[in-house]
Design goal:
- This protein is mainly α.
- It has a single domain, classed as Orthogonal Bundle (Arc Repressor Mutant, subunit A), CATH 1.10.10.
- The chain contains four helices and no strands.
- Belongs to the HD-ZIP homeobox family. Class III subfamily.
- It is found in: Nucleus.
- Residues 11-68 form the Homeobox domain.
């Protein structure tokens, strides 16, 4: 039983990690050169304007900029 709980915990942890495609990183890097700390509105605008970023949650984009 402990093994199944451990594997469940592991699945939950891995679902929080977001792996960006090279194209997504390139798009985020372009924005970063223009604005290293985009506002919440700007991040939402990015998601609307850039189809390659549409499957990433705004919170994850915020974290990307914080970690950059």
């Amino acid at each position: 039983m402990a093994l199944s709980m451990h594997s469940k915990d592991k699945q939950m942890d891995s679902s929080k990690y977001v792996r960006y495609t090279p194209e997504q990183v390139e798009a985020l890097e372009r924005v970063y050169t223009e604005c290293p700390k985009p506002s919440s509105l700007r991040r939402q605008q990015l998601i609307r304007e850039c189809p390659i970023l549409c499957n990433i949650e705004p919170k994850q984009i915020k974290v990307w900029f914080q970690n950059r």
